[in-house]
Write a structure and sequence with these properties.
Helix content: 25-40%
Structural class: alpha+beta
Order of helices and strands: HEHHHHEE
Strand order of the largest sheet: 1-3-2
Largest sheet: 3 strands, antiparallel
Strand content: 15-25%
Amino acid sequence: MAITYSQQKQAEWNAFKANGGSITFEIDGTDISDDASFEKLPSLQSLLKTGFEIPPTPLIETAELQSLIQVHGSEWDYILCRIYLAGGRVIYLQLPNGQYEATCTVP
């Protein structure tokens, strides 16, 4: 994934990091999982167009995994790590164009 930031989106991201709240990104299914196989899971089929969450492993709280994400993770992995470590959530919604709206919320 390559998140393209406009100046407005960069300012929105900076404000989100500093203050929490909500921000929305449009991402590809391969950002959620390498092969977008989650789309075929029976438990998610009915939720793709209504919204779903795939929370990270509890191991995200370990320093080792955080370091690995910093060094080897994608930009989206980094964003997810920041959001969940701040007590936030990410809700995905499949868009008509096949992409996903990822609404990130941090209290």
